[in-house]
Amino acid sequence: MSPGMRLDLSLSATELTRAVVDIPSPSGAESTLADAVEEALTGLGGLRVDRDGDAVVARTGLGRQTRVLLAGHLDTVPVADNLPSRLVDGHLYGCGTSDMKAGVAVMLRLAAALAGSAAPAGPAGSAGVASSAWSGGFVPAHDVTWVFYDNEEVDAVRNGLRRLAANHRDWLDADLALLLEPTSGEIEAGCQGTLRVAVTVPGRRAHSARSWLGENAIHRAAPLLERLASYQPRTVTIDGCVYREGLNAVRITGGVAGNIIPDACEVLVNYRFAPDRDVTQALGHVREALDGFPVELTDSAAGALPGLTAPAAAAFVQAVGRTPVAKYGWTDVARFAALGIPALNYGPGDPNLAHTRDEHVALGLIDAAEDVLHRYLAGPAAGRGRR
Fold it and tell me: What tens digit of pLDDT does each residue of 369-378 get?
């Protein structure tokens, strides 16, 4: 590996975030960053470090009664002339700064604080080494697992967390999973489910100069669009979190040529639903709402309930001191929920800046997220302050 591609975990939060951002890792090309993460974690000692493809998993083995899992994806959307990173007025700009390399840097710094050079190193691939001489001035209250995974920004079939769940389910065992997706430092509980259906409206083709001989499929789609426009979505409160649903046309295709009355029009409809419904119930609701039109399911993903009643989740909410809110959109917390692991979204990035050309993260949010997670992992009786 090139020396320039190594990660120095003793760097400040700002500089480590910048180093992670400056290793390009668009989906499918995470190997260089995964190599750097694996090398840095292995060098700490006191951790079992495993790898599956471009996913890296590190775990302590202290025998604590609870285990907390921190997860973050290494990949970004394609670079948009926004690398290398740059610092401007307390903000770090660059591809992936918000989604979610700031969260990845926080995870790495926490690993360094919890399993630094004071912990004896074990052989590669060995079980985690227990040590009471942890750097950072405290003994962690929980065992901790760090999961850095690939291909989150692309098709679900390629998702690295999905692959880990299939190949190494035991690596993901935990009492609570925290996904460091961008939330601007808020706790976003659970996530919405999502499904898409294709609705095809038929017509009859004819020459446009003799349109009365045909039936215009695009025109015939108007009642469907009117029904969607007048649809009244549910608002559902679960564990104090308010989930707002939506049923919307997101794409419409139709037409053959500039002189032909179209004989088919397809409307793609997206339903974002509260996690009190599973995919089967959600699809049933869509069929009912669009009764009279042919509905074909094209893809779906179940949501995740907030899980705030789980003891580990309640303790985290108390540590953060913020009122949880619903997660709008789908995240990999749903994968943990499907495994029976309570999961929350909490990270330093701004979700509104994700995937934008001027993506950036406020440096203060990075420090705040690290402080909160450090305090939570240490437990109420531990010393304060970051390395």
Answer: 999 999 899 8
* Secondary structure (H, E, C), the chain: CCHHHCCCCCCCHHHHHHHHHCCCCECCCCHHHHHHHHHHHHCCCCCEEEEECCEEEEECCCCCCCEEEEEEECCECCCCCCCCCEEECCEEECCCHHHHHHHHHHHHHHHHHHCCCCCCCCCCCCCCCCCCCCCCCCCCCCEEEEEEECCCCCCHHHCHHHHHHHHCHHHHCCCEEEECCCCCCCCEECECEEEEEEEEEECECEEHHHHHHCECHHHHCHHHHHHHHHCCCCEEEECCEEEECEEEEEEEEECCCCCEECCEEEEEEEEEECCCCCHHHHHHHHHHHCCCCCEEEEEEECCECCCCCCHHHHHHHHHHCCCCEECCCCCCHHHHHHCCCCEEECCCCCHHHCCCCCCEEEHHHHHHHHHHHHHHHHCCCCCCCCC
Each residue's pLDDT tens digit, 289-316: 999 999 999 999 999 999 898 888 998 9
| pTM of the model as a whole | 0.85
Selected from 3.30.930.10, 3.40.50.150, 3.40.630.10, 3.40.50.720, the CATH number assigned to the domain covering 3-190+304-378 reads: 3.40.630.10
Q: Catalytic residue numbers?
A: 75, 152
- CATH fit for domain 193-301, picks 3.40.309.10, 3.30.1360.20, 3.30.70.360, 3.40.50.2300: 3.30.70.360
